[in-house]
Amino acid sequence: MSDFEARLVAHVAGTQFEDLDTAAVEACKNFVLDSFGVGLSGSRMGMAPRLLRRMRDWGAAPQNAGATAWGHGTRLPVPAAAMLNAFQIHNQEFDCVHEPAVVHPMAVILSALFADAEARRASGRDLLLSVVLAVDVATVLGMSASTPMRFFRPGTAGCIGAAAGLARLRGYDEDGIREAMSIAYSQTGGTMQAHTEGAAVLPMQVAFNARNAITAVDMVADGLCGPRDFLSGQFGYFSIMESAGNAPDAFALLGREWQISRVSHKPFPTGRAAHGTLDGLLQLRSVHGFAPEDIARVEVQAPPLVRRLVGRPPKAQMTPGYAKLCIGYVAATLLQRGDVRVEDFDPAALQDPARLQLAQRITMVAGSVDDPNALAPQQVSVFLQDGREHSLELPEILGSPERPLTREQQLRKFHRCVASARHPLPATAADAIVRQVESLESLDNVAYLSSLLCSGAAHELA
């Protein structure tokens, strides 16, 4: 086992809850709540009930066993529940992101860890520690990369991180933690091709990896062994899936900086790479007061990763997955409506001719930064029909640790999300979830939270 593998194992095995600082614990609770909200909202998407039916075809959980499918009032085997909930967290591009790592850390990690914690009646304190450690592993792997993504990093790094967190949650020793990450690597997958095409399978790449993380830790319990050099070997993660040019600096952060505190909220249900444009347009419009019809064109200067992720052109008959990652469409939506909401990617909105026409006038060009993994800085320039030009440089983007959402903004997002669920939660249940998460470290059994996450749904049989 090389130094990289050994350092991850030692970090996961040796860290205690008392080692976490207050900022890390509070950040973890904030992003648990955020992920519950976007996961419940994700139940509104048509694939969610179809996936639930498929899960039942594959096998049901015995009564009082398994884990909960959020928002559906149904219990499933733990790997199936993790898979469905991960899909719902990521299927609207509304989940949080660690920008330096380019990883959505909670989609795979929280869905897998919460399902396992629920089934095992784990405490909130144990859940928080395992989530923080899993996020450290996933994001350190992401920050190690020095070349553009080929594999879908939120899935691949998320799977290895989730397996590490699950192993710690179950009380595995160092050998068990190493085997869990190794076996997770042996089955992780998902490429950037789905992202490039905006294909509907993209959030399923997160879902598959949540299931795979559960499978990995189960196989450890059954005695399965993986390759020792799963990161640094000839065919390890840093050879096949990612580069490791930045690994020395990334691994040096272990035990020094809790990466959960570096995670960004998403104010809008679209790729984080689009948030700079939306943030800039909101600020410029608040100062200069222009209307959509006043705009001749919008130009965004952005790093290579931003252009690669969301610089695609608008087109007729866009799928929701494509539109969420199309800078023209999301920016035109903001300019028309003053906001971007989950309903803006429903079929009727996608066919709005005025929105599509405005979208054609919004483009991205190369900025001054050539870092292949940078999401900032960005510059937004609005050129008006009367010849005036307004520009704004954004070194940091709304929702980042440097420009965080206020608590009021976080709660507004959560309540809007749960109200948009397939079975909207009653206000009393939503408020109860907020209170329980705020005191999560004092909760003896996280299973109580699962009942609240389904309080809007009757037991679904179809």
- Strand order in the largest sheet: 4-3-5-6
Name of the CATH first level of the largest domain: Mainly Alpha
Q: What is the number of independent domains?
A: 2
CATH architecture of the largest domain: Orthogonal Bundle
What order do the SSEs take from the amino end to the carboxyl end, as H and E?
HHHEEHHHHHHHHHHEHHHHHEEEHHH
Output the CATH homologous superfamily of the largest domain. 2-methylcitrate dehydratase PrpD
- The fold-level CATH name of the largest domain is 2-methylcitrate dehydratase PrpD
State which percent range the strand residues make up.
Answer: 5-15%
Would you report the number of β strands? 6
Major sheet: size, sense and barrel closure?
4 strands, mixed
Can you count the helices? 21
Domain MmgE/PrpD N-terminal: 7-243
Family: Belongs to the PrpD family.
Domain MmgE/PrpD C-terminal: 268-422
InterPro entries: MmgE/PrpD_sf, MmgE/PrpD_sf_1, MmgE/PrpD_sf_2, MmgE_PrpD, MmgE_PrpD_C, MmgE_PrpD_N
